[in-house]
Amino acid sequence: MKPITILIADDEAEIAELIAIHLEREGYHTVKAANGRAAMQAVQSQPVDLAILDIMMPELDGHEVTRQIREQYRMPIIFLSAKATDLDKITGLVLGADDYMTKPFNPMELVARVKAQLRRAMQLNQPAEGVHSILQVGALIIDPDKRTVAIYGQTVELTPKEFDILHLLASHPNKVFSAENIFEQVWGESYYDSGNTVMVHIRTLRKKLGEDPKKFVKTVWGVGYTFNG
């Protein structure tokens, strides 16, 4: 069985080495990159199961690396950054990151988050049992096995979290999910006042689905969100 490979991209060599030491103690294989361009080269040259990215890196910053990764890969991405405002966190999550930790950080907490994201990724990649469960509502087609979405035959490019939210809602048409329900099921973590994160993802999801922004994902004021099936 091949070891799980984790990319650590940070221009601070001491931080990258500290992370690598803790992850390797847990049996993970690590690859370090000192800038964004080197991070992309690492991803393209070998299988990477999870990426830990600093935002403020030379050559390509963490945001641009995430954009490029998401064009081809679905690995979990954890941002590790000195930027600590809510806007910074939401921006990172909307771009396609799965988690966000601020510096200074507890290495053991980072290891725990790595394990949680890898666990979730493995669950999502399990082959579906039974009948191929494609969901179709009018012109909207959601394929959970391939993790693709199309409208009128045109592919809609969603981040992993946007796809998970849409699939969750579409799998339970007309059921109302609170922001807390969505966050805990999609992110797999306790809520801790993360309503803005869910709201921003819903907003960008609607924009990408086009047409009437509330045709598929409807807000139930004061309660949450539901899928118009």
UniProtKB/TrEMBL annotation:
Which CDD domains does this one have? trans_reg_C
Where is this protein found?
Cytoplasm
According to the entry, every stretch annotated as the Response regulatory domain falls at: 5-118
Q: Superkingdom of the source?
A: Bacteria
Q: Which residues bind DNA?
A: 132-229
Q: Which GO terms describe its biological process?
A: regulation of DNA-templated transcription
Modified residue 4-aspartylphosphate is at which positions?
A: D54
Pfam families documented for this protein: Response_reg (PF00072), Trans_reg_C (PF00486)
Q: Which GO terms describe its cellular component?
A: cytosol; protein-DNA complex
Q: What is the name attached to this protein's record?
A: DeoR faimly transcriptional regulator
Q: Which organism is it from?
A: Paenibacillus graminis
Keyword list, A-Z: DNA-binding, Phosphoprotein, Transcription, Transcription regulation, Two-component regulatory system
